Amino acid sequence: MGKIINRVMRLIHSLRYMRKIWRDGGVCQVHVDRIDHGGVLKQKRVLITGGSRGIGLAIARKCLSEGAHVLITGRSEDSLNAVKDEMAGCPLSIMPWDLRDVSQIERNLRAAEDLLGGPIDILVNNAGVLAGGQQLFDLTEERWDATIATNMKGLVFLTKEVCRQWVRQKHKGKIINMSSMRGVLGCVDGPYGMSKWGVNGLTRGLGLAMAPHGILVNGIAPGIIDTDSISIEIDSSENAYLGCVPVGRIGLPEEIAELAVFLMSDAANYIVGQTIVCDGGYSLKA
Fold first, then answer.
1. What is the CA radius of gyration of the chain?
2. CA triplet 250, 195, 236: central angle to 5 degrees?
3. What would the pLDDT profile of 12-56 be if each residue is shown by its tens digit?
4. Are 275 and 221 in contact (CB under 8 A)?
5. pTM listed for this prediction
6. Which residues pair with 47 in a beta bridge?
7. Proportion of the chain above pLDDT 70, given as a percent
8. What is the pLDDT of residue 133?
9. Do residues 251 and 208 make contact, with C-beta atoms less than 8 angstroms apart?
10. CA-CA distance, 82 to 52, in Å (whole number)?
11. Which of 17, 192, 241, 282 is catalytic?
């Protein structure tokens, strides 16, 4: 009996060791459950800036699966057309739009409503640039202006106009501001972190100001997500391991999309002005 117990204990120890190697030794596979909300966004009109790739595209796909009519914008008309071709038959519209040019916002919003067939119900401020990780003492005026123009200026003036129209029309809507874990880690990493810190502040202040009008504003702060905008070369379908993150892996755009659709739904109507961090615990290390 003692020998059997010893063998069982050794087997258990070996299995635990193999599990440790699998999870912590440089190999990690990821499965993301897709929650079927049963068409929770049916007949909703959703505008997603920067929606032709990465997180924005994942959010667009999830919104479409929940019955929404979606309009994605971006600077590259070729990228937008490629997405449109890929999703032929879906209620997806595209619009080339450079948010840095605030003079075009009112005109483009009218065009967006025409494409969507009515007023926008949900705005996802996803467009942004990473600014190459430039640090404070390496900061140039050119890099500052380029980053702030997209990450804050374009976002602020678009949001301002959408909210102005909604208040005038007494239209209840939702806004999701895409921030970053860098927005909660301090502002020494150059214009990117500073811009996202500002987005978090806008989310809080606008959330408070707009809630009495039935307009709910929240944000999401992703961590290191497997998109082509990051400099880390990882193929998450093969191995998502990333040792610098407490959970030991990179995040997937689909994980952010699941959270975004929850915030868009009426299940989240008591959440106001919050920026939800989804970074695998990375920011907790600070």
1. 21
2. 10
3. 654 554 454 455 567 787 878 889 999 999 999 999 999 999 999
4. yes
5. 0.89
6. 71, 123
7. 88
8. 61
9. no
10. 8
11. 192
Q: Which residues contact 22 (CB under 8 A, 6 or more apart)?
A: 28
Residue type, 168: R
CB distance 26 to 20 below 8 Å:
no
Question: Is 265 part of any domain?
Answer: yes
Least confident stretch, 142-146, 167-171, 214-218, 238-242: 238-242
**What's the domain range around 265?**
40-285
Distance in angstroms (rounded) separating the CA atoms of residues 81 and 88:
10
Q: What is the CATH number of the domain that holds 79?
A: 3.40.50.720
Is 192 among the catalytic positions?
yes
Looking at the structure of the chain, the number of domains it has is: 1
**189 HSE (CA, 13 A, CB side):** 16
In a domain, 12, yes or no: no
Closest CA to 77 of 95, 59, 100: 95
3-state class of 253 per DSSP? helix
